[in-house]
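quick one
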Amino acid sequence: MPTCNIGILVSGRGSNMLAIIRAIERKRIKGARVAVVISDKREAKALDSAMRHGVDAVWLDPAEAASRLDYDMRLLDVLKDKGVTPKDGLVLLAGFMRLLSPEFVEAFGGRILNIHPSLLPSFPGLRAQEQALEREVKVSGCTVHFVVPEVDSGPIVLQRAVKVEEGDTPETLSARILRQEHLIYPIAVRLFVEGRLKIEGRKVLIRGK
Ligand code: GRF
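structure w/ 5-O-phosphono-beta-D-ribofuranosylamine:
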């Protein structure tokens, strides 16, 4: 099996990024390497963490780009440069706070995953955990999905439910959901790398399950 080069896009803390780097280090995901981590924020903690694990980390400054499309084409260049190609690479969004242009998404069609802290299609967009609390749901969770041009709407790969407890705050609920994110994102990446995910319309078929 050829090695799948992974590019991870981040903007902040990078705990999901770390979960994936560690899963590869511990050989829970085989046949893959994180070729580069790219952040749109210079101060992102994720950049330091990636470097500490020997992963190339790049800050790509949005202020240098003429437009969203220009930025995304620069992203594409860095990814390709590091061997993350639309043909056999994988792009992971891990707390990346920018919207991707349809051109970028189409270029990598079916090879971009995202993790979102709610049970989609409930509570897409920002502050998903707060939205869940405001709506007084009893259960929330997290979702790994393929990325399509519309935000948080792509075919769903895996989900984990998390109980909302009496007295939960956005912080306590987020922390409980995050623990599940760290479990399901590496599993989804492994399934992708093993070639076991097949998109059929809205549905993701998981082979060998
Ligand atoms: C996570 O809650 C993820 O679901 C959302 O952004 C947050 C990123 O956290 N997309 P981290 O940077 O991975 O720690």
